[in-house]
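Incident review: delayed structure delivery

Summary: a single-chain prediction request sat in the queue longer than the usual turnaround. Root cause was a stuck worker, restarted by the on-call engineer. No data loss occurred. The affected request and its eventual output are reproduced below so the record is complete for anyone auditing the incident later.

Affected input:
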Amino acid sequence: MKETISLRLARPDDIERIFQWRNNHYLLMRSTTQTTVTWEEHQAWFTRALNNPDQLIFIVVQGDEPIGQVRFDRNKDLAVISVYLVEERTGKGLGIEAIRHGTEAAFKKWSLTKVVACIRQDNLHATRAFAKAGYSASKGESGFCPPAHFTYSVSHENVMASNRVTTDYLGSVLVIAAHPDDEVLGCGGTMARLRAEGHDVKIAILGEGLTSRYPARELADRSLVCRLHDHARRAADALDVKDLFLYHLPDNRFDTLPLLDVVKIVEELIQRHAPDTIFTHGCADLNVDHLVTHRAVLTATRPIEGHSVRNLYAFEIPSSTDWSFHRLVPGFEPNTFFNIEATLEVKKQAMACYQTEVQDFPHPRSLEGLDVVARRWGTVAGCKAAEAFELIRSVVYV
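Output delivered after worker restart:
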């Protein structure tokens, strides 16, 4: 049974409980202000807060037990949110629900345009939680936050829209990539979004990566390959993807293998996991491994009766799709765009896990480059950031 929480307004008898939380070491190390307060200071603040029309304090309750706090401080038509749960209730998705419920309550209570969150840059879990709750990185309200903090915000319109937009039709998702980092470059923001919306997402990386940088495959430093695969695991964790399958096909040498061998890997993945939707490479990439992966996935997903895969999407890869300069026909012609305003920073954090692959700007695989590409597709799709895909096919069963 899914664990649920509720919110209630803080009462005078919560004063000691909130004081204990306020000075708790675990919570202090994750808060914007990392200094303890005295009982006298807390008494004065709490009394003012309960009577301040520009402050809202909610107690997060699970069952009958208080487990945390959500607070809002209003400044004209904006409010700043702060939230925490006691340590033993973290990691269960309850914080995301607390953010969502609290944000909706704040918009109902006040006539706000936005709610702003200040998140410490080293607090990846908080960044993911706010992204999953519908917040996105924002520069317009950065003055609200101290240095070394990300500024995330959500508008009233986005909160209302989140109740209307659904990706339920995608079902369970499998991302099939040729190399470690392709999965993040191609659809990292979309994966983070789909995980936030409750989808089962899995990643399969077919190639070992890196070994083509040596004169011969057998000369490659295997410790560096192992480190690259560890980076892939960290990136998957940053995206909140629990299932990662690593294969060891020769890097940039997929064309030396019988295509059938690659097809059988993909077929075995589909048979084992029965995904409804697959995201993979397109046919316009410069990298030969991407082309073989595309062909293998097309072959393995032929829509015969009873096949699980209903939706098939192709993504672009910066430094491969763009560097083919449209000389491969057909080129990448996206017709589907996923809004990743709320998860662009999560994508960049996942890419940053690939310490040997991420490059300096203006390289397409730089963090700044990923931001530019997402913003550019956002202008095409009418949002602030997007990932672009070719919908290869979608089958609707009646």
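Verification: The CA atoms of residues 66 and 210 lie 50 Å apart.
Action items: add queue-age alerting; document worker restart procedure.
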